[in-house]
Amino acid sequence: MLSRTAENLYWISRYMERAETMARLLDVGYRMSLFPNPKGYHNEWDSVLSAAGAAQGYFAKHKEINQEKVEDYLFFDEDNPSSVYSCILKARNNALVVRTAFTPEAWIAINKSYREMLDFKKNKYSRSDLPNFTEWTIQQVNMFRGSANSLLRNDGYHFIFLGTFIERADNSARLLDVKYFVLLPTADYIGGNLDNLQWIILLRSLSSFRAFRWAYEGDVTATKIAHFFILNNDCSRSLSFCTNNIVYHLNSLKCNPDKITDIYSGLKDVHNSIKTETVDTIIDFGLHEYVTNFVSKISYLDNQIQNHFFK
């Protein structure tokens, strides 16, 4: 078993990545709520809760969907383990234990985020403040991520970014799945103006719209989006990019080659699939089925890492 330092670093990066994802999900919901859906249908907040994996916890506290309550639950609620506040708090608690294992700037970025979050919670805020909160969260996570890049390229560094890309791979897959299967009111709207508008909003919320337009010509389509978020290795949030970086940081660890080989054997089929699949074969197989299988594999990989290294 490795020292607790490696485990703390692994979870610091995962919590900070998750905080950013929650903020981006809230931004998607907020932007989509500004546009009228056909026949008065609105399910963007249901979709956001589903993507966040927070629906069960939310309905344990609230009887119905309410935009203000969803926003509060995903951003500030201490009872929600995946809220932005909870993620930053847990990242800070882990960072307190290993302050000497990374740069002072990385600690300052996390601690500053926590202190400012406490100020946000104390003050009254309105619905119009949400875009500022989400933008603030993304900035804070990027500050931490940037400071982590100055670390010595040892096992601690690789565990930080291993956690980052495992979390991002899982989140990107869930976002793609929820958009494709949950957000639209019926399948009749697939390929229509509402569908395309929602894809554009999702791209903008992930800071990927301009990158997408650089990579693909013509209209925004579900097929192009699927290729962008699954197979395009130039997209920093694609499943391909995340998987390749997981493999890189896993194989760069020097702590225990036998354990690394054992863990990679469970990831090998996913890695090979990403390298050999085409978007047509994925769609023929079923986008939902492909993404569900990918999420299952990433979850298994996470369990393998924890069982081999941290227990």
Query: How many structural units, i.e. domains?
Result: 1
Largest sheet, in brief, is: none
- N/C terminus separation: 6 Å
Query: How many separate helices?
Result: 15
Mean pLDDT: 85
**Proportion of helical residues:** over 70%
Radius of gyration: 19 Å
- The count of strands amounts to 0
* Strand proportion: under 5%
Structural class based on helices, strands and sheet pairing: mainly alpha
Extract low-pLDDT stretches.
none
Order of helices and strands: HHHHHHHHHHHHHHH
Q: What overall form do the CA principal axes indicate?
A: globular
Quaternary assembly: single chain
How would you summarize what this structure contains?
The protein has 311 residues and is an all-alpha fold. It has helices spanning 4-33, 44-52, 55-61, 67-75, 84-97, 104-122, 130-148, 155-183, 193-205, 209-215, 222-230, 239-252, 257-276, 279-285, 287-310.
What this model shows, in words?
- The protein has 15 helices and no strands.
- The chain has helices spanning 4-33, 44-52, 55-61, 67-75, 84-97, 104-122, 130-148, 155-183, 193-205, 209-215, 222-230, 239-252, 257-276, 279-285, 287-310.
- It has one domain.
- Helix 1 runs antiparallel to helix 7 and helix 13 (257-276) runs antiparallel to helix 15 (287-310).
- The termini are close together.
- By secondary structure, it is mainly α.
